[in-house]
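Quick illustration, no need to memorize.
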Amino acid sequence: MKRYGMVIRVKPEKLEEYKRLHANPWEGVLKTIKECNIRNYSIFYHDGYLFGYFEYTGDNYEEDMKKMAADPVTQEWWSLCKPCQEPLPSRKEGEWWAEMEEVFHLD
């Protein structure tokens, strides 16, 4: 299992819309997340930033992320979420959410 942390800004005028979307996520999206070996997924908000955390339990992260990105229901969900988000300028090429480095963990 590998833990992932990621960050992105949320547009101030879109915060309530983003919260509304995530208060009632689509079953198809949740199903795909689980099928792609993601567990214990949370998104937190503070001061204009969204922080995402999840645990990946599979053995081929890149393939699972490709599978998720190819899912039509997930693509439609993302089309609603992406206008609410503003990627960080410091993100790596190809990232939407900027992946974070884990610097501490305690079980």
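The longest strand covers residues 2-10.
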